[in-house]
Amino acid sequence: MNLSFLRAKSGSLQQRVIFRDNIAEANLFKGRFLIAATVVILMTIALIYNLYSLQIVNHESFVSRSNNNRIKILPIAPPRGLIYDRYGVLLAENQPLYELEVIPENLDQGKTVRNTLAELTALLALPLEAEDLDQLADKIRLGKKFKPVVVASKLTEEQVATFSVNQYAFAGFSVEPRLKRFYPFGSTLTHALGYVARINQKDMEQLELLNKTKNYAATQDIGKQGVERYYEDILHGKVGYKKVEVDSTGRIARTIEFESPVPGRDIYLTLDVRLQKKAQELLGEHKGAILLMDPASGEILAFVSNPSYDPNMFVRGILTSEYQELLNNPDRPLINRVSQGGYAPASTIKPLMTVMGLNEGLITPKTQFFGGPHYSLPGSTHKFRDWRRWGHGWMDVYRAIEISCDTFFYDLAFKSGIDNINKYMSAFGFGRHSGIDIYEESLANLPSKDWKMARFKQVWVPGDTVPIGIGQGYWSTTLIQLVRAHAILTQHGRNVIPHLAANYEEMAPLEYRLNHLSGRYTPPPKMAVEVKSPTYFDVGMKGMYLVVNGPEGTGRRAFAGTKYKAAGKSGTAQLITIKQDQHYNASAIAKEHRDNALFVAFAPYESPKALVGVILENAGGGSKFAAPIARQMLDAYLLDPEHPQLTAETAPADARGSSQDRKNGRNSRKGKEAEREAARR
Amino acid sequence: MISILEKLKKHVHVDLPLLLGIITLMGTSIVVLYSATNENTDMIISQVLRTIVALGAMLIMSAIPPRVYARWAFAGYILCTVLLLLVLIAGHVGKGAERWLDLGIIRFQPAELMKIIMPMTIAAFFARRVLPAKFLPCLAAFMLIMVPVGLIVLQPDLGTAVLIAVSGCFIIYLAGLNWYLILAGAVTFALYAPIHWYFFMYDYQKHRIITFLDPESDPLNKGYNIIQSKIAIGSGGMLGKGWLQGTQSHLQFLPESHTDFIFAVYCEEFGFAGVLFLMTLYAAVIARCAYISMQAQNTFERLLSGALTLTFFFYIFVNVGMVSGLLPVVGVPLPMISYGGTSMIALSAAFGIIMAIHTHRKKQPY
């Protein structure tokens, strides 16, 4: 109905007068409203139907989702097993500390992370520089939303209190009590003990591979090096669980169930921390390593690589700058010089070559040999020099070892041939894993024909064999291989497995333990070196006895006046080739090219209880520099007033009773006690 | 004394059935809020105070004769638009979404005021014309709607803008807009929507719509609210978990549990039975309002009360639809239930107007 014509064309009127059909308009409205009402009813039905489907039809599934929502299973990290030395001195402990963390998801979105961090730093006086704050802010922004980021560790009680009062202003931040690994002896045990550090991506992948991620759900740190890494499974323990009702910010409303974690097992090492300190002290500024072992059992008493570093840096999270410093240090403190450093064994292997020569029938104990100034292969003019420019004259094998005659062993090596040498020295453990319970071990290189072909694409020539006879040439070894080889010698061929953990066989299932060696389990053989007569070993050992006790022995000065019968062998490893017409002159060549000094010694001679190996990089002659250190290590262990190792039979009568010695003994006892005290502190 | 009361009674123009419904809603609000705020008595007290203010506003609005509204609508419209402009300028000076106008003593949102002024203005606009409305007046009315709506969109407050636009459009519809034009409008909207999406929407608004289409795609961020809300509703079941027993809200899984998502709290604790009760309550209020608009005596009153009624329903629909996952999250509170004063006061004022329309009728309609 169009009533617009009724509209008065009354511009003259102030107020427009509208003639309208009120009933018609009411009806129009009612019609329109009813249509709208119909739509409203339909929409309401849709709403209610939707709610019906949520609440009645799919009720069950939402109930379970709701339950999952509020019940969270929180893993609890097990306390890590402690590590003690052989006398119960704590070497690795767990210190309770407070860490300030942030969960990025829960941050106040209104503020920038950087500003919040700056505020916190000011409030708590955190030792964070502007750069650190930038780095942290990036880490928080770019990291996973629910993964906590540690802002500061080792908060003081005061800082914790200050934070607690102001926590409301810092959404997402919280202070978490933690147990953190601490190594009270710092750098003294680093290369043996290793350290733990944050689980990184690589560790995570490894854990996934071994299906262990669940057990590490709450764990922050993992063994990265040394014993900490090797016995990770033993030390770690079993994760616990806490079933809790939580809100979406992760706050715990109520604990429903609690399954406590199983703490990791404590480990007792065979190390003696006092000997570690002694060894570190003896090495001083020298680059080098000392390994002291019980040759009968394979128990390692001292395992020191110098220079070392403080493992606690890694636990708290090493700064890039600190790590760069360690990495770029020309003395390479990160290298484990006991089990990773490859060194030419030099003359120290002469007693072992003797065993080979005897068993192969190339020499007898009575064979006489004339040691000239140099040795040449038949039909060759190349001169392999003896260390003594004028030679040694006539000798038997004992004297050859005592004076460390080179030409004798050049000749023996040549006669034996590289294949034989490789066979015997491999049996002594060279070029192979020692079985030590750390993973940081390199194989070094026991050369063979195949090796040279593979490495240099060259045929092995007899000239290559000659220097092998004196532990030079292509041959390199680690200190642990060298010490183990001598242990096998003193045990007349019996296999010796060096180890750091007291009950290593029981703790690490051999299967697992040896996996990294060969990839599959082979039980270690009882005998390492099998020869026709065990007396062959005695010949080598007697030679070594003469080295420190004989009139011409290279180590006689260093071992003068020992209270026990010792035996040893020096080694001086050339690092550069001296030209045919030149002579070695230490002062004329660069420090890093000077000879490495080596010494291996054991005592008491009759039934060895201690075997020590010393390597000093670029020090010079083995008998001059390494031998005194070897002797002092043996003294420190065998004459330890607290734990005496010598019985009446093993201590020679003539070495007892001199007043001078008694005085020394008292002094050293006092010194030990003071040291022990210091260690406890 | 009695005479004073008698005199006062003369000025009371409440509609008792409607008042009853509204007070029941307000009571329900307090009960649910007590649970949704985690038994926060401070918040409950302030909400009770707001409820009293809202009832007062209703009382005042109901006492004003509808013709006064018709006369002052345009003036109010202009004033309110200027205020919106001021808010926008102030918002540019400050940072971020500025919706409040600080007048020193009181702070208020002009947009909330516009919720009432808008239908009033459009109703007054059509009341001066013969119905059904022609195209040109309809276009003019649409322009009147879009100016303040545009300003509110710029704040940016899309939810409120949509609600205000819709309340105005309801009046154009009720004024008899040609069905063909409605169709044309729908087509235009369908064509315009993508343009708006690409050129005028803020990222957070886009995210909300993307999330609405597939909340599970981003369960920890944008879809979190909807997922948690659906879990709350669904886990309520037939009878609910019981008052104060809702885990979703009490364990803080549910965001904005006392404001926009209060319906989820209600559903979790009172179940489908509670839903039916609340829906019935709303239906009763709407039915009474519908009855009043049917009884209205002139075009202005009819259009205004009808539009307010439909708008009230629209609020409910948008909020419930949003909370239960039918509609995108647009930040609209559940009318009369959600925590917060402005929305409740604006709605109560609207109910007051509806009451006024009913109680100021001439005794004998011709």
Lay out the secondary structure.
The complex is a heterodimer of chains A (681) and B (366).
Chain A: H1 22-57, H2 59-70, E1 71-76, E2 83-84, E3 90-102, H3 113-124, H4 130-142, E4 149-155, H5 157-166, E5 173-182, H6 190-193, E6 196-198, H7 201-209, E7 221-223, H8 226-230, H9 232-236, E8 240-246, E9 252-259, E10 267-268, H10 273-283, E11 288-293, E12 300-306, H11 312-316, H12 320-328, H13 350-359, E13 369-371, E14 374-375, E15 384-385, E16 393-395, H14 397-402, H15 406-416, H16 418-427, H17 449-456, H18 462-468, H19 479-490, H20 504-507, H21 510-513, H22 515-518, H23 535-549, E17 567-573, E18 596-603, E19 610-616, H24 622-638, H25 659-680
Parallel strand pairs in A: 2-10
Antiparallel strand pairs in A: 1-8, 2-3, 3-4, 3-5, 6-7, 8-9, 11-12, 11-19, 13-16, 14-15, 17-18, 18-19
Chain B: H1 2-11, H2 16-36, H3 41-63, H4 66-93, E1 101-102, E2 107-108, H5 110-127, H6 135-154, H7 158-174, H8 179-199, H9 203-213, H10 224-236, H11 247-250, H12 262-295, H13 299-323, H14 341-359
Antiparallel strand pairs in B: 1-2
Helix pairs in contact in B: 2-3, 2-12, 3-14, 4-5, 4-6, 5-6, 5-7, 5-13, 5-14, 6-7, 7-13, 10-12, 12-13, 12-14, 13-14
Structural commentary:
The complex is a heterodimer of chains A (681) and B (366). With 681 residues, chain A is of the alpha+beta class. In chain A, a hairpin with an 8-residue loop joins strand 14 (374-375) and strand 15 (384-385). In chain A, strands 2, 3, 4, 5 and 10 form a five-stranded mixed β-sheet that branches. In chain A, strands 12-11-19-18-17 form a five-stranded antiparallel β-sheet, with helices on both faces. Chain A has a three-stranded antiparallel β-sheet with strand order 1-8-9. Chain A folds into three domains: 20-57; 73-268, Penicillin-binding protein 2a (Domain 2), CATH 3.90.1310; 273-306 and 339-680, Beta-lactamase. Chain A contains 25 helices and 19 strands. The two termini of chain B are 38 Å apart. Chain B has helices at residues 2-11, 16-36, 41-63, 66-93, 110-127, 135-154, 158-174, 179-199, 203-213, 224-236, 247-250, 262-295, 299-323, 341-359, and strands at residues 101-102, 107-108. In chain B, strand 1 (101-102) and strand 2 form a beta hairpin. Chain B is mostly helical. Chain B folds into two domains: 14-63 and 203-359, no CATH class; 74-201, no CATH class. Chain B has a two-stranded antiparallel ribbon. Chains A and B meet through helix 1 and helix 2 of A and helix 7, helix 10, helix 12 and helix 13 of B.
